[in-house]
């Protein structure tokens, strides 16, 4: 949830608020908070567009990993960070439901992690003219939530929960509140 992305996001304020609540509860429980920060030609490090929105600014104990691809695991060290901390379940939220969120959640499952997709904690771009090949933002979010509600991965647990229902345990993966 970087400045350039939030500026074009559907339900930006509500999504940022949901993620901010997750961060606060995770930090309070001593669970790790890991932020992935896109850097590319449109979001160059150090620019205002690249910065994470102030409401989600990393705390000193948080881990921030730069990424250059939609897949949050590709070339970021995310898998190593999670395994080194003994994390077995990841909470996925953020921008670009059908691109970054989907790629990262699916890769987490493929790499052996259980996944919680935060139903009100991911969003996509506003599509003002509605004439493109993409689904409307609210349809895309609902579509992906439903896919993950019905997705079965052998040996993995996949949950779709609103942010208010995601709980955390100290230094561990998400739990139930």
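^ structure tokens above, recovered residues below v
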């Amino acid at each position: 949830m970087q400045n350039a992305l939030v500026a074009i996001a559907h339900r930006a304020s509500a999504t940022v608020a949901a993620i901010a609540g997750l961060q606060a509860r995770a930090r309070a429980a001593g669970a790790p908070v890991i932020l992935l920060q896109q850097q590319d030609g449109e979001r160059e490090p150090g620019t205002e567009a690249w910065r994470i929105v102030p409401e989600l600014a990393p705390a000193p104990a948080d881990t921030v990993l730069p990424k250059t691809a939609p897949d949050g695991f590709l070339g970021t060290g995310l898998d190593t960070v999670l395994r080194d901390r003994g994390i077995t379940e990841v909470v996925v939220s953020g921008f670009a439901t059908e691109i970054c969120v989907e790629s990262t959640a699916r890769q987490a499952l493929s790499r052996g992690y259980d996944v919680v997709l935060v139903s009100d904690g991911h969003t996509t771009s506003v599509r003002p003219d509605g004439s493109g090949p993409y689904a409307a933002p609210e349809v895309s979010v609902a579509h992906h939530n439903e896919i993950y509600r019905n997705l079965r991965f052998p040996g993995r647990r996949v949950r779709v929960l609103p942010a208010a229902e995601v709980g955390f345990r100290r230094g561990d993966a998400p739990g139930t509140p």
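The domain at 3-175 is CATH 3.40.50.850 (Rossmann fold).
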